[in-house]
């Protein structure tokens, strides 16, 4: 009788213990743990916005707490035509709403092209948006600048910084600003095989509105990279970039790789010690799977109020790969970046499909 009583107490205690565990964790279909807030408010599920926000760049308006995301010009297939670099707004990086476009009409410093791959920054109290102006196969694409007093605009175009011919870097697109010790550098460049192809950096003027000397460019990566971004952490400069086909619908092969250096100008080496100034180098950070393909061209790293790092990027859902009209349906994705042995890691190296803990922002 005593043994039966002890056994009953043990079973009840075990059930209680399991119940406590389940209040903090559930299992997905693969048996992996998912942290769960019992109120159900701390989880999010990818994608965080659809149908399209390609090549996202993000900034927070500290006065309101709202995040603003900007993306490449695209036709969303809803009958409203091309959005000239759409703007989204969010309080938490998870729930986004459409807030308008950067431009109502295209800048006139170039005859034709699309407005691609913007990069948003706050300089001297204003919002600086560097952007690409290019056609597919364009022989002379370039990079321009628009400035606004508020993150939501209106933006005033300030014209070009340079074109490919002027700076002698073919396929001059995909700008990304890096600031350190009062100096501003623009990194840019994209795919190609020419001798001067690849990712380059160049010093900007103090106010960030011009390039004083086009001859001061320096090359940091070969011509099999695009969408470069520099992030500094613990004494290292981390080079993040994308490779592969970005926009082939379900066949897109885009993926994100990383390398690092002890100097801003490099050399940037991957985990195996290869210099990314040579083609074929780079350590894979994120690639497609059976659900999402073509993940890449991400934002700068965003730190939440708990100190966690996050990336927004685009990817293409294989079973919903294009919108009406044929554009690749590049949805907006969000994933946490962890650090292991000095290198960034995103989950299992694929876009996160399961529900996960969302970023923490207190106001």
Report the portion of residues in β strands: 35-45%
Q: Helices and strands: which structural class?
A: mainly beta
What's the tally of helices? 2
How many structural units, i.e. domains?
2
Q: What level of helicity do the residues show?
A: under 10%
End-to-end Cα distance, whole Å, is 58 Å
Please name the CATH architecture of the largest domain.
5 Propeller
Our Rg estimate from Cα atoms comes to 22 Å
What's the CATH superfamily of the largest domain, by name? Answer: Glycosyl hydrolase domain, family 43
Could you describe the largest sheet, including whether it forms a barrel?
Answer: 5 strands, antiparallel
CATH topology of the largest domain: Tachylectin-2, Chain A
Global mean pLDDT: 90
Q: What is the highest CATH level, the class of the largest domain?
A: Mainly Beta
Order of helices and strands: HEEEEEEEEEEEEEHEEEEEEEEEEEEEE
Total strand segments: 27
Tell me the overall shape.
globular
Low-confidence stretches: 1-40
GO molecular function: hydrolase activity, hydrolyzing O-glycosyl compounds
Protein name: Arabinan endo-1,5-alpha-L-arabinosidase
Family: Belongs to the glycosyl hydrolase 43 family.
Organism: Sphingobacterium olei
């Amino acid at each position: 009788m005593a043994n039966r009583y002890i056994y009953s107490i043990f079973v009840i205690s075990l059930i209680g213990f399991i119940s406590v565990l389940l209040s903090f964790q559930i299992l997905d279909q693969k048996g992996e743990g998912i942290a769960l807030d019992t109120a159900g408010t701390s989880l999010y599920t990818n994608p965080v916005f659809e149908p399209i926000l390609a090549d996202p760049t993000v900034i927070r308006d500290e006065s309101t707490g709202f995040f603003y995301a900007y993306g490449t010009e695209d036709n969303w297939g809803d009958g409203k035509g091309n959005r000239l670099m759409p703007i989204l707004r969010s309080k938490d990086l998870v729930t986004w709403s459409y807030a308008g476009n950067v431009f109502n009409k295209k800048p006139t410093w170039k005859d034709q092209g699309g407005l691609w791959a913007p990069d948003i920054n706050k300089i001297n109290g204003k919002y600086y948006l560097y952007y690409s102006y290019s056609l597919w196969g364009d022989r002379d694409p370039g990079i321009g600048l628009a400035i606004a007093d508020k993150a939501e605009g209106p933006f005033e175009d300030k014209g070009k910084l340079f074109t490919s011919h002027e700076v002698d870097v073919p396929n001059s697109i995909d700008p990304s600003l890096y600031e350190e010790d009062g100096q501003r550098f623009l990194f840019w460049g994209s795919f190609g095989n020419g001798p001067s192809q690849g990712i380059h950096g160049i010093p900007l003027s103090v106010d960030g509105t011009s390039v004083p000397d086009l001859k001061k460019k320096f090359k940091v990566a070969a011509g099999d990279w695009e969408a470069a971004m520099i992030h500094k952490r613990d004494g290292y400069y981390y080079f993040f970039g994308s490779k592969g086909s970005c926009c082939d619908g379900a066949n897109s092969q885009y993926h994100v790789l990383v390398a690092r250096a002890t100097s801003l100008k490099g050399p940037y080496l991957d985990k195996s010690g290869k210099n990314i100034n040579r083609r074929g180098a780079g350590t894979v950070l994120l690639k497609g799977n059976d659900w999402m393909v073509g993940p890449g061209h991400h934002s700068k790293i965003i730190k939440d109020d708990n100190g966690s790092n996050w990336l927004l990027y685009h990817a293409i859902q294989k079973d919903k790969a294009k919108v009406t009209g044929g554009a690749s349906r590049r949805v907006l994705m969000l994933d946490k970046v962890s650090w292991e042995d000095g290198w960034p890691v995103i989950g299992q190296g694929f876009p996160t499909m399961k529900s996960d803990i969302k970023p923490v922002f207190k106001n």
